[in-house]
Design goal:
The protein is mainly alpha-helical. It has a domain at about 55-170 and about 180-265. It contains 14 helices and two strands. The protein has helices spanning about 1-15, 20-35, 50-75, 85-100, 105-125, 130-150, 185-205, 210-220, 220-225, 230-255, 270-280, 285-300, 310-325, 335-340, and strands at about 170-175, 175-180. The protein has a two-stranded antiparallel ribbon. A hairpin with a 2-residue loop joins strand 1 (about 170-175) and strand 2. The protein is globular, with a radius of gyration of 23 Å. The model is unreliable at about 1-5 and about 345-369 (pLDDT under 50).
Length: about 375
């Protein structure tokens, strides 16, 4: 209860601030993110990796992917263990269309998003009637199917993958020559930052719309939402398609930077890390998801000097985090309250006395007259 009382006032004070003050604060944060690749901050520096490169991948890419997965997991409450498949669809769209058809990046980007959304509809159409563990198993299988198809299909590169992959075209912006190459990651970071900002705006507006309210109803109680007239299947399909499109956009952005891709760039472990970012940051809360993705992507790079032990230490930190703060680093007020304040009746799977809820006394048998 005390932890929730710390979270709620901060969020409430932010909401009570004048709109102009919040706009200035967000603009200052955006300016900080723009100049961040040029800063040398000892605490944030990555000794064994180039800091600007780390900001693009894995940090920036993980943030964009986590925003898409949050639509599926955090907003609609659908557990997806194969989200890397949509990341792969976007990546291979960039690789194949750029390498073989020679399309420009800014044409491949919307096509890659559309193909990823189509993959989300193809997966969601026959499977979204399932719930819980069954849906998770099907999505896990879909991710592995995409990985195996990419590995065993010679027409799309097979185990060798696709190379070389063209970079986005160079252009002039307010007199500044933006050049996309291999050595300088900053132009890619700025392009990715613009995509993240656009995604946040779109997802935030969806969250406040009728679609977002339908997702909330489905997440809280799908049966009740169905009885109240919410077309649950349609809105779950929308969540899958939108989340898949954002994941595909991240795949296109990632592939535009690297020289080549192969099926090994899209393994199951990435799906787990993406899901860990959403859960660790605070499922359903956009600032929390961004923070969680940044932490999940940044910490292994910061402690790369630990070599093979860094993943073990990182996994242990996640376990400790889930034990002592299961609602995440920066949860939404609704989710924090749900986890920290049991509902009357003890919640699902609890008994009276376990949560302090008194059980009704059993009436005594009346004595015979």
């Amino acid at each position: 209860m005390a932890r929730f009382e710390v979270i709620a006032p901060v969020a409430e004070r932010w909401d009570r601030l004048p709109r102009a003050v919040r706009a200035v604060a967000l603009l200052a944060l955006l300016v900080l993110l723009v100049i961040l690749p040029h800063l040398k901050i000892p605490v944030l520096n990555t000794p064994d990796s180039d800091f600007a490169t780390v900001l693009f991948y894995p940090v920036g890419i993980y943030v964009l992917v986590a925003l898409g997965l949050n639509v599926v997991v955090g907003e609609a409450g659908l557990l997806d263990l194969g989200y890397v498949a949509f990341f792969a669809v976007g990546g291979y769209s960039m690789g194949l269309l750029g390498n073989r058809v020679h399309w420009p990046f800014f044409l491949i980007l919307p096509v890659g998003i559309a193909l990823s959304m189509l993959a989300g509809v193809i997966l969601g159409g026959p499977t979204l009637r399932l719930r819980g563990d069954y849906l998770a198993i099907v999505t896990l299988g879909f991710g592995e199917i995409v990985h195996l198809v990419a590995r065993n299909t010679d027409s799309i590169g097979g185990p060798r993958g696709v190379s070389p992959i063209p970079h986005p075209p160079n252009f002039n912006l307010f007199g500044y020559h933006v050049r996309f190459g291999i050595l300088d990651p900053k132009p890619y970071y700025y392009l990715l930052l613009a995509m993240i900002v656009l995604t946040i705006v779109v997802v935030s507006n969806l969250k406040r719309s009728r679609v977002g309210r339908a997702w909330t109803a489905i997440r809280e109680d799908e049966d009740a939402a169905e009885l109240m007239g919410v077309p649950t299947f349609r809105f779950k399909l929308w969540a899958f398609a939108i989340g898949a499109g954002i994941g595909g956009a991240a795949g296109v952005m990632y592939t535009s930077k690297v020289i080549s891709i192969s099926p090994d760039n899209f393994i199951f472990q990435l799906s787990i890390l993406f899901l860990a970012a959403v859960v660790l940051g605070g499922s359903g809360n956009i600032p929390g998801v961004i923070l969680g993705a940044a932490v999940v992507a940044y910490l292994p790079e910061r402690f790369r000097s630990f070599a093979q032990y860094r993943i073990m230490v990182f996994g242990a930190a996640l376990v400790v985090m889930m034990i002592f703060r299961p609602q995440g680093l920066l949860p939404s007020r609704r989710r924090a309250k749900e986890l920290l304040e049991p509902e009357p009746g003890g919640g699902m799977g609890t008994l009276g006395g376990e949560t302090g809820v008194e059980m009704a006394p059993r009436p005594e048998a009346e004595s015979a007259p």
